[in-house]
Amino acid sequence: MNKRAISVTLDPSNLLWVRTQAASSGCRSVSEMLNRLIYEARTSGRRQGESRRSVVGTIRIAKSDPDLSTAGAAVRALFAPA
Question: Between the CA of residue 51 and those of 40, 44, 69, 77, what are the distances in Å?
Answer without folding.
Answer: 14, 12, 26, 27
